[in-house]
Amino acid sequence: MTQFRPTGYNSLPTIIKNLLIINGLMFFAQNTFGGPTSAFNFEDIFALHAFQSDLFRPWQLITHMFLHGDLGHIFGNMLALWMFGSILENIWGPKQFLLFYFLCGVGAAMIHLGILSFELMDATKIYHQLVNAGGALNGDEVRFLTGYKARVDVATLGASGAVFGILIAFVYLFPNTYIYIYFFIPMKAKWLGILYFSYELFFALKNSAGDNVARWAHVGGALVGFVLVYIWKRNQRRY
Question: Please, are residues 152 and 50 in contact by the beta-carbon 8 Å criterion?
């Protein structure tokens, strides 16, 4: 199947509708009740933190998907979730789609944390050596400890990992369906998927200083989504 031809198509299926509502409510709560002056810090509790951080909690593997950094962040994710996810939910049904969504999101988070742990491996050893050494620290050592703590405490948030999985699943199932970039420029889904994935992989490998986008979470979500949809399609006779 390379083209999506809707039959009895629901433009706002149950899971998509509820995910949009929950994300919207969480974004409202973040900006209404959160903030640096609030006693309740949404990002410290619900956003994803490195395994090495004192702020890490297991539930953050799921809850980080319902927080967003700004209006552009949530709008882009929710638009893509609706555009591609509503089609997949119509095909798979609500239970399978919801499972797919969370598997992609959690898988993306685990890959992100795994890469981050690898990058921090040497710094973590030095950090523990300095903490356990005792005695006075010089200026460079204090700056290192401060910088390390700031890096591991950086919050990762957003549904992008899960959304990338949904995008890749759509591309795999409907590669020749036209998508209109900026609602104007037509491009086949397969070329959009290849270009977008290559873009994220390039910057993930480049690992530029100051890039505050969790590129490996995007790449990880796409990889998990591809593996899942490939296995599911292979094991089912028809879609």
Answer: yes
Angle ∠(104,167,95) on CA atoms, nearest 5: 50
Fill in the amino acid letter for 38.
Answer: S
Q: Is residue 77 part of a domain?
A: yes
Name the residue range of residue 135's domain: 14-32+39-235
Domain of 118, CATH number, reads 1.20.1540.10
Question: How is residue 39 written in tokens?
Answer: 């006693």
Confidence (pLDDT) at 106:
97
Given a cut of 60, whether residue 239 has pLDDT beyond it is: no
Whole-number Å distance between alpha carbons of 153 and 171:
35
* Residue 126 included in any domain: yes
Looking at this protein, which amino acid is placed at residue 115? Answer: I
The model's pLDDT over 166-215, given as tens digits with 9 standing for 90+, comes to 999 999 999 999 887 766 788 898 998 999 899 899 988 887 666 678 89
Kindly state whether residue 2 falls inside one of the protein's structural domains: no
Give how many domains the chain has, as a whole number.
1
- 119 belongs to a structural domain: yes
Looking at residue 187, its pLDDT comes to 86
Question: In terms of C-beta distances under 8 Å and separation of at least 24 residues, what long-range contacts does 14-17 make, across chains too?
Answer: 14/89, 14/94, 15/85, 15/89, 15/94, 15/97, 15/98, 15/101, 16/81, 16/82, 16/85, 16/86, 16/89
